[in-house]
Amino acid sequence: MTDDFVDRVLQYYHEYEISEGDIDLNKRKEYQEIFNTIDPISQCFFLIKDYHSNNCLFISERLKSKFKIDSYSTEVILQNFQIHPDDRMIIDSIQRARKYIYQQRIEERKDYKLVNNFRICSEANQCFRNDVQHSVLEMDQQGNFWLGLRIIHLDPDQESDRPASSFLQHVYRNEIIYSIYGDTESGCISRREREVLELISEGYVSKEIAQKLFISEFTVNNHRKSILRKLNANNASEAIKKAVKVGIIR
Fold it and tell me: Which UniProt keywords apply (predicted)?
């Protein structure tokens, strides 16, 4: 990974200053104990980023082995996690998500998750496609993130050459704030639009959707138009394919 790219990633790590007096340092030991227990029996990898020390608090043993990680330093780890050059839009999405979340009320900032699908390349130029879920574990008293969790799954479709994708979701409202698939970006898909799209994908027509959601057929058709516009799709079939790829619907 080039030095300028590493610098770019580190820049957003250092964006907010965290004072030791504003955090509960006992949380470090607490999370280490939790993840030391669940890591050996989990099918995924875990990484906990400590923004106060600028190191990783926890890294799954299998993750360290797979990518030959022998340091907890963020800068050193970035040299091991070489993002495929075609997938580096992921960094823009991480920065964008962080900025969006910081605009929300402090008590809501832990309610979001960012999910990225992209390729990580080893020093031997072997690339692995991964789903990486980002979420906030702990904040300081000012609402700044100081412990962040990464949950990493190996994508079962390792041979795919599809573009990287990313979406930011409010977990409890089940609302997609934005989603990106390669060079295509969708606007904010509302919860109702998502419900409509899910029913379309199940084969229901507008009249049936209206009955199921207790809204008018006119409203359903307006949602259809909005979905096509936000997903930059020409028809319902194309919208469904894009929505599945970026995780809006399953």
Answer: DNA-binding, Transcription, Transcription regulation
CA neighbours closer than 13 Å in the CB half-sphere of residue 116: 22
pTM of the model: 0.76
What would the two tokens of residue 89 be? 């839009």
3-state secondary structure (DSSP) of residue 81 = coil
Q: How far is CA 181 from CA 13, 67, 116, 190, 232, in A?
A: 24, 26, 10, 18, 11
Determine the structural domain holding residue 212 and report its residue range: 191-245
Whether residue 125 is found in the same domain as residue 212: no
Per-residue pLDDT of the chain (250 residues; tens, 9 = 90+): 445 556 666 666 666 778 888 999 999 999 999 999 999 999 999 999 999 988 999 999 998 888 788 889 887 777 766 788 888 888 888 888 998 999 999 999 999 999 999 998 876 677 889 999 999 999 999 999 999 999 999 988 887 777 888 999 999 987 888 888 776 666 667 778 889 999 999 999 999 999 999 999 999 999 999 898 888 789 999 999 888 877 778 7
CATH number at residue 103: 3.30.450.20
Vertex 143 angle, CA 138 and 146, to 5°: 40
| SS3 label, residue 244 | helix
Total Cβ atoms within 10 A of residue 83: 21
